[in-house]
Inverse folding.
C-alpha cells in the first residue's frame, strides 16, 4: 500500500500543512479583497446616484417638471443605467421604471415586486433609492438594483473559492509528488541498509549524481560503511589469525599433556614433558599479552602520559643491551646516534619499538649480517633508521608485515609471534610518527620519522 | 617469613599459599579487602601480596588505607592489568608489581627481595660480597684487591646483584631495574650480559660468586 505510506511521510505532512496555511492566507486575503471591493463599489454607486440626483434637481430647477420627466424618460430607456421615478403630489408616476415605493425621503431600500421590475423578465428587484422632495410636491427617486452588487459579490466569491481550491490541490499534489521523490531516495537508502543487515556488507547506497543533500548523505554513509567494512575485515582477519596461530601451540600443549597422562614415564621423562607443556603455555600467554599490549597501545590512552624523552639515550640503552647478543650471533652492530635528540612520547614504548626492530634484524637475517642503527635530528622532528643487509622484504609484502601474525614465507620456521612489527606499527602510530620500509640494497631499511 | 596474601581467586590463592609454605614461610590468606585490612592492621608481616582486583575494595585502596593506618609492610601487587599506567599507580602505592600469569620462581625472588630491602636511612656507600667490593661513591669495583673495569651498565647490573646478594634475582627483575625494559624481549640479552660480567668478576678467581639458578634467574653470593 504505497499511498498511506506516502501520506505518512514527513514531506507530505509538511507540504499539507503548508498548503493549509497558504489556503488560510488566501482566504483571509480574499475576504479582505471582497469586503473592500464591495465597500468601494457601494461608495462608487452612492456617488453616482448623488451626482445624477444633483444633475436632475438642477434640470428641474432650471427647466421645470416637464423637462425633468423628458430627461428621466430618455435615461430610463437606455439599458444598464440607473433606475428612476418621478411622481406628482398625488403619487402618480410621471416617468421612470421604478415603483415609487413608500413616502420616505433620503436613502431607502425596498423590493419592487414582480410588477415593478425594471428589467423585463425579472421577478423582483431589490433596490436602493435616493428620494428627494422637489418643489411643487413632486418626488424624484434615483436608485440602483442591488442585484448587480450581489452578482459581483458572487463572482468575487467564485474567484476566491477557485483560488483556494487550486492552492489546496497544488499544495497536496505537490506534497504527494515531493513525498514520492523523497520516499524514492529514502527507499534506496533503506534497501541498502536492509541488504547490509542481511549480511551483504559490500552494498553501497546508489548516488543519483544530482549533488544534492541526499547525494551528500549517501556519500557520507558510504564512507562510513567503507570504514566499518575495513574494521570488520580487520577484525575478521585478526580473529581468524589468532585462532589459526594459537592452534599450533595449543595442540602441542595437548600432545605434551596427553603424553604425560597415558604412559608410564620415568621421572626424568615426565619432567621433560611437563617442561615442554609449560613452554608451550608460555608461548600462548606471551602471544596473548602481546595482543593485549597492541590493543592497549592502539586505544591511544597513553598519549596523556607523554613527556619529553631523550631518544638518544633510549637508543644507546638498546644498543648497549643488544650489542653482546648480536656480536655473539656472528652479526655486527654499528650505531650512529646524535646527542640529545628529544621526542615527546612514552619512554617504555619507544624502547620496545627499537628493541623489536633490532630483534627483527637479529632473528630474520643470516649470520654475517651488518646491522646499523642511526638517529639524527631533522629540521622538523627526528629521524631514526634501523637497517640490515639481510634478505629484506619483497615490495609487495611490505604493507602486509604490519598485520598481526603476518609472517614472511622464509621466516615461518623462525620462532616469533608475528606480532613484533604490529607492535612497532601501533607504537609509531601512537607517537604520530611515520614508518617506511625501504630496500637497503641488499636488506631492509626501516625509517621512522618523529614529528617535532 | 610471615606473608599476608590478599587474593580472591581461590586457585591462585591456594597455589601461592602452598608454594610459599613449601619454602618454609607462614601464610595468612584473606579472600577480600575487609578481612585483609583487618589482618594487615592487627598482625605484623614481612611482606603483603595483594591482588589489584578484589571484590568490594580495590587492592590499591586496601594498601592506601593500611599505609594511612601506619602499616609499613612492603607490598607486592599481583594483577592481570598489564598496562603501564596500572604499573605506575601500583608502584606509587606499593613496592613491587607482578603481572599474572607469573612463574612461581619470579614471585619468590620478588618477595625475597622485598622482605629484606634495607630501610632507606641505612643505604651503604660500599657493597661487599665475599672478596668482591663495590664503591658506590667512587664507582669502582675490586675483587681481592684487584680493580675490575666495568662499563656503566655492567656496574648497574652488578650493583643490583650485590644489593640482592644471597637472593635469586630473575631475568625480568634485571630487565626492569638495569635496562628499564618493562617488556619481555625475545632475545635473552640478560644472559649475554651476565656471562660478560661473570667473565670479569669471576674468571681467574678461585670461587665463583655469580651463579645461574636454572629456571629462575641468577644468584650472587659468598661461597659456602
Amino acid at each position: 500500500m504505497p499511498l498511506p505510506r506516502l501520506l505518512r511521510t514527513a514531506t507530505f505532512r509538511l507540504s499539507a500543512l503548508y498548503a493549509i496555511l497558504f489556503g488560510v492566507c488566501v482566504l483571509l486575503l480574499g475576504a479582505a479583497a471582497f469586503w473592500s471591493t464591495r465597500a468601494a463599489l457601494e461608495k462608487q454607486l452612492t456617488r453616482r446616484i448623488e451626482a445624477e440626483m444633483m444633475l436632475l434637481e438642477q434640470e428641474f430647477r432650471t427647466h421645470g417638471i416637464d423637462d425633468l420627466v423628458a430627461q428621466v424618460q430618455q435615461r430610463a430607456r437606455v439599458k444598464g443605467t440607473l433606475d428612476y421615478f418621478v411622481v406628482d403630489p398625488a403619487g402618480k408616476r410621471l416617468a421612470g421604471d421604478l415603483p415609487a415605493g413608500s413616502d420616505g425621503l433620503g436613502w431607502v431600500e425596498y423590493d419592487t415586486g414582480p410588477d415593478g421590475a425594471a428589467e423585463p423578465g425579472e421577478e423582483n428587484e431589490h433596490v436602493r433609492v435616493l428620494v428627494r422632495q422637489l418643489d411643487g410636491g413632486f418626488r424624484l427617486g434615483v436608485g440602483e438594483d442591488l442585484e448587480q452588487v450581489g452578482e459581483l459579490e458572487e463572482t468575487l466569491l467564485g474567484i476566491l473559492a477557485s483560488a483556494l481550491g487550486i492552492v489546496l490541490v497544488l499544495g497536496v499534489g505537490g506534497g504527494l509528488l515531493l513525498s514520492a521523490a523523497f520516499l524514492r531516495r529514502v527507499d534506496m537508502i533503506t534497501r541498502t541498509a536492509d541488504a547490509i543487515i542481511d549480511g551483504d556488507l559490500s552494498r553501497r547506497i546508489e548516488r543519483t549524481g544530482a549533488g544534492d543533500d541526499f547525494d551528500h548523505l549517501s556519500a557520507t554513509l558510504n564512507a562510513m560503511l567503507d570504514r566499518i567494512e575495513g574494521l570488520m575485515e580487520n577484525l575478521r582477519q585478526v580473529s581468524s589469525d589468532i585462532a589459526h596461530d594459537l592452534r599450533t601451540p595449543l595442540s602441542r600443549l595437548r600432545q605434551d599433556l596427553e603424553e604425560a597422562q597415558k604412559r608410564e614415564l620415568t621421572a626424568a621423562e615426565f619432567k621433560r614433558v611437563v617442561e615442554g607443556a609449560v613452554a608451550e603455555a608460555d608461548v600462548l600467554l606471551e602471544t596473548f599479552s602481546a595482543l593485549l599490549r597492541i590493543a592497549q597501545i592502539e586505544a591511544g590512552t597513553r598519549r596523556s602520559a607523554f613527556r619529553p624523552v631523550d631518544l638518544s639515550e633510549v637508543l644507546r640503552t638498546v644498543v648497549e643491551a643488544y650489542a653482546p647478543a648480536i656480536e655473539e650471533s656472528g652479526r655486527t652492530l654499528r650505531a650512529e646516534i646524535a646527542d640529545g635528540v628529544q621526542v615527546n612520547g612514552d619512554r617504555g614504548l619507544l624502547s620496545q619499538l627499537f628493541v623489536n626492530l633490532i630483534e627483527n634484524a637479529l632473528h630474520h637475517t643470516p649470520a654475517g649480517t651488518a646491522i646499523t642503527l642511526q638517529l639524527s635530528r631533522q629540521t622538523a622532528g627526528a629521524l631514526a633508521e634501523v637497517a640490515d643487509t639481510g634478505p629484506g622484504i619483497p615490495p609487495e609484502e611490505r604493507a602486509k608485515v604490519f598485520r598481526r601474525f603476518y609472517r614472511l614465507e622464509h621466516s615461518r620456521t623462525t620462532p616469533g609471534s608475528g606480532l613484533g612489527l604490529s607492535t612497532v606499527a601501533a607504537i609509531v602510530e601512537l607517537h604520530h610518527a611515520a614508518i617506511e620500509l625501504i630496500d637497503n640494497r641488499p636488506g631492509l631499511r626501516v625509517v621512522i620519522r618523529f614529528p617535532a | 617469613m610471615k606473608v599476608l596474601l590478599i587474593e580472591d581467586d581461590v586457585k591462585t590463592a591456594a597455589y601461592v599459599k602452598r608454594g610459599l609454605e613449601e619454602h618454609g614461610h607462614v601464610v595468612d590468606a584473606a579472600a577480600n579487602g575487609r578481612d585483609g585490612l583487618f589482618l594487615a592492621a592487627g598482625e605484623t608481616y614481612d611482606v603483603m601480596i595483594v591482588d589489584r582486583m578484589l571484590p568490594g575494595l580495590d587492592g590499591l585502596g586496601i594498601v592506601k588505607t593500611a599505609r594511612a593506618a601506619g602499616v609499613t609492610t612492603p607490598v607486592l601487587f599481583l594483577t592481570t592489568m598489564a598496562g603501564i599506567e596500572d604499573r605506575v599507580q601500583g608502584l606509587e602505592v606499593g613496592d613491587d608489581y607482578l603481572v599474572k600469569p607469573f612463574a612461581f620462581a619470579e614471585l619468590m625472588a620478588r618477595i625475597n627481595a622485598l622482605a629484606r630491602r634495607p630501610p632507606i636511612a641505612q643505604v651503604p656507600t660500599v657493597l661487599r660480597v665475599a672478596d668482591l667490593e663495590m664503591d658506590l661513591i667512587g664507582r669502582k669495583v675490586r675483587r681481592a684487591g684487584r680493580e675490575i673495569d666495568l662499563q656503566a651498565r655492567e656496574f648497574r647490573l652488578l650493583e643490583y646483584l650485590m644489593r640482592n646478594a644471597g637472593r635469586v634475582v630473575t631475568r625480568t627483575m634485571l630487565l626492569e631495574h638495569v635496562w628499564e625494559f618493562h617488556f619481555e624481549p625475545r632475545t635473552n640479552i640478560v644472559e649475554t650480559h651476565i656471562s660478560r660480567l661473570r667473565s670479569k668478576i669471576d674468571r681467574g678467581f678461585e670461587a665463583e660468586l655469580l651463579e645461574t639458578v636454572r629456571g629462575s634467574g641468577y644468584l650472587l653470593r659468598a661461597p659456602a
Observations:
- The interface with chain B takes residues 285-286, 289, 292-293, 296, 301-302, 305, 317, 320-322, 324-325, 328, 346-349, 351-352, 355, 359, 362-363, 415-416, 420 of chain A (CB under 8 Å).
